[in-house]
Amino acid sequence: MPPHLIFMPMPDTQTASDVFYVIDFDSTVTRVEGLDELAAIALEGQPDAAEKVAAVRRITDQGMDGSMTFSESLQQRLALLSAHRDHLTPLVASLHGKISESFLRNKAFFAQHAEHIIVISSGFREFVAPIATSLGVRPENIYANEFTYDAEGNIVGVDQSNVLSENNGKVKLLNRLQLPGKVYVIGDGYTDYEIRAAGLADKFYAFTENVQRANVLEKADHIAPNLEEFLFVNKLPMSVSYPKHRIKVLLLENIHKKANEIFQTEGYQLEVVNGGLDEDELCERIRDVQILGIRSKTQVTARVLEHANRLMTIGAFCIGTNQIDLETCKEKGVAVFNAPYSNTRSVVELAISEMIALIRGVFPKSMAMHQGQWDKSAKNSNEIRGKKLGIIGYGNIGAQLSVLAEAMGMKVYFYDIVDRLALGNVQKCDTLEELLRQADVVTLHIDGRPENKNFFGAHEFGQMKDGAVFLNLARGPVVQIPALVEALKSGKLRGAGVDVFPEEPKNNDEPFVSELIGLHNVILTPHVGGSTEEAQFNIAEFVPGKIIDYINSGSTFMSVNFPNLQLPAFGGAHRLLHIHRNTPGVIANINRVLSEHGTNIVGQHLKTNETIGYVITDVDKAYDKDVIKALKEIPNTIKFRVLY
Ligand SMILES: NC(=O)c1ccc[n+]([C@@H]2O[C@H](COP(=O)([O-])OP(=O)(O)OC[C@H]3O[C@@H](n4cnc5c(N)ncnc54)[C@H](O)[C@@H]3O)[C@@H](O)[C@H]2O)c1
Ligand SMILES: O=C(O)CC[C@@H](O)C(=O)O
């Protein structure tokens, strides 16, 4: 046996439990196959280059998936290549730009485990070595084929004395190396699996960042979508605190696909359900989910949250968050985000269109026309100009509506339980009654907090002007539907526009049932106030942005239930995030633990609300890792995580 084929680990660092990491090169260390790249460079400009490059790729695949013997595939490819020694320099330059992203991110692993990292490639040393050594692999730990050349420097073959040029070359090489410890192989090809099949490796990790081969995946002990997965399961040093592909997102209720795109680009696992889920279904589906995305239908109850073992954050892809048990979320350390402005304009536009349509009697006229009746008259048809609009709830929607309504010549009044600044010439009413007594159009834009249930009933309709128009585009349960029906049937109201209902179908297949069906001059819409292409796109961009920021930096800016902290970048430090019950002494305990472990604090931020406290501590990278366990054990800790 040639002496260089006996592996010589560093004697002073070796122990019986040592693990050797055997790494494939083509399509694993690099995103591409080296010989495919060489073909593209060598054949450039030749008339039949495209066909030949495609043929080389096809043969590479056959060799990699095991459908052609390796030495046959190598011979066939070399014959097609027509490559020269001079092509190797541009090849190496090109491969430097095509190193797998997760390998580039994790150079620390190569630095810390250099003596146990071995690259074994059926590719060629001429391009494998410069790339692998740039990551920190030791030259003596690189095993690969070598080209043979003719006198003019043309590549004419492979060094046949190298065991890797043979069929089963990797197995034969491993056999000879006699690695003194466990062997974990990571690679994308069948020849990598063969090492495990021959009993020469303890585990085979199929690496799928660049290619996936079904027959390799089915043989793998573990599938690694990137190097972080391999490092994570083996508790090895990683460039990130947690592999992103392990973060599971569940999106319900037809959230705009822009959100899917954003979460996928971030590297998260995505599961999408088109409709809503009922409580039992959600309890089942939420078990291993870290990020939940919903709209207004899904009820996130305390029972659902009981089942959400790994939930970190919920995105309400809408304005309202009354469908979420925010208190329980706080107690469980689940941060909730929404999109407070993204669909405001859409609701305002629908409200304006409805008040015009109702005051002109557009819908009854249109219905009559559909039945062949021509009723050309001005009776019960009015302009909105000069009419009084009463806005109940002068928040984002109410205020924006007031600006547009004034621009159309309406006199605008509002009533709100908090002191809001009146825009333009809008007049504030001190009581609800004051507003109801004078408004020609009353429109609800209050939120769906529990106290607002049944907010508007017979008493309030009774205080309205005869012949007024009523709109609810806020939340269904705030209006008592029997009282509204009575006000419409008795002629007290001229008409109504209703977009939201106490009971709404869970999805588009369920029927809509309501006492409002069939009433004269009533516009019914299926909770679409915020459902425009523009609004849904804006929401689908906004909410993932907040969630990703929270996951990556801990920022809770604009969270609806967490103390809001907008955090600076933490380059060069590790960030410790501690969520706890807001009781005296927790911050003191945190700092005592940090000081006892000699941890150097780079920066610290604390914010509390009535229920929870949120402390972010940036510390020097070099710290005693036992501090993590101690911080988690501080009484009243709800959740703790580390970011880097
Ligand atoms: N139909 C839809 O598709 C649709 C779309 C977006 C928003 N909405 C709903 O519209 C409502 C308003 O949205 P927003 O963004 O303007 O919210 P917002 O929080 O900015 O404003 C709500 C306002 O209502 C006030 N308010 C609450 N209860 C009140 C009460 N009992 N009496 C008087 N004022 C009260 C609040 O003080 C606040 O000023 C929310 O319920 C939201 O869910 C519906
Ligand atoms: O799109 C939805 O489901 C809800 C829209 C609206 O009620 C909101 O709260 O933003």
TrEMBL record:
Domain of life: Bacteria
Domain ACT as annotated: residue spans: 575-644
EC number per UniProt: 1.1.1.399, 1.1.1.95
Gene Ontology process terms (BP): L-serine biosynthetic process
Enzyme class per UniProt: oxidoreductase
Pathway participation: Amino-acid biosynthesis; L-serine biosynthesis; L-serine from 3-phospho-D-glycerate: step 1/3
Name recorded for this polypeptide: D-3-phosphoglycerate dehydrogenase
InterPro entries: ACT-like_dom_sf, ACT_dom, AHAS_small-like_ACT, D-iso_2-hydroxyacid_DH_PdxB, D-isomer_2_OHA_DH_cat_dom, D-isomer_DH_CS1, D-isomer_DH_NAD-bd, HAD-like_sf
GO molecular function: (S)-2-hydroxyglutarate dehydrogenase activity; NAD binding; phosphoglycerate dehydrogenase activity
UniProt-listed CDD domains: ACT_3PGDH, PGDH_3
Family: Belongs to the D-isomer specific 2-hydroxyacid dehydrogenase family.
NCBIfam families: HAD-SF-IB (TIGR01488), PRK11790.1 (NF008759)
Catalytic activity annotation: (2R)-3-phosphoglycerate + NAD(+) = 3-phosphooxypyruvate + NADH + H(+); (R)-2-hydroxyglutarate + NAD(+) = 2-oxoglutarate + NADH + H(+)
Keywords: NAD, Oxidoreductase
Species per Swiss-Prot/TrEMBL record: Catalinimonas alkaloidigena
Function of the protein: Catalyzes the reversible oxidation of 3-phospho-D-glycerate to 3-phosphonooxypyruvate, the first step of the phosphorylated L-serine biosynthesis pathway. Also catalyzes the reversible oxidation of 2-hydroxyglutarate to 2-oxoglutarate.
Keyword Acetylation annotated: no
UniProt entry tagged with the keyword NAD: yes
